[in-house]
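Quick one: structure tokens for this chain, please?
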Amino acid sequence: MVARAAHAGVLTRAPAADGPLTPVLERLAPELWGLVVAVHGVLRPDERHRVVELLPDLEATVGDGLDVERGLLRADWSVWVFTAAWLDVAGLSGETRALRELRPLTDADDVLAARAVMRSVALGATRASMVLQTSLYDRQLLDAWYVADRVGRDLTRAAGSPVAMGGEPLSPAMPASPQLRVLLDLGARATSDAARLAVWRVMESGGLAAGGVDDVGAAAERELGGMVGRLRASAIDLLGRAAQVGV
């Protein structure tokens, strides 16, 4: 497996942690402001000061011509960290391994290779999700499917899905942008299916097959909250590494 940098756990006149970022964003290049908005948007209020602390470093990169590299860095995080983490907690070990064995995304060829792997991974996750849906239908528990879907969507957003899936501009100048968009869309599909499966595992183990959204959400937060928090911390780390591209 190719080693990657560890994924842990705006402004000269810095705004308050919960203050407006608009004055800063106006001075950032598209990929940088897209990443700042996405990360800031998924953090809790008590975590947002960490984004503000990184803004002077990000502002210093404006005009350095490295937005393409930052877009690839963000996409790499989406594939190798975010989607792989959800596949892992869903019990899809083969699909998890396939993503974590990919080369780092450094150019268009890497994106194309990753897209082919992600297509297979997304298909595997969809098949597993369909098997679950059929099983729940046969057991007259189809409502559990919708509960797992709702809770899974809430958790993936809290964990950083806008960061992972390029909810804000992601390297529009990169020649491989169409291929990159396909890769991220496939990743979104795989993550969605994996999140449903992960929440269902929590429901099944806790005897919540007939539970409502609130009860299932609380149980899923207890079981998966640690991973969700680690992914948010990793998104902040991603922002810090974006400021260091080319340094």
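The mean pLDDT is 85.
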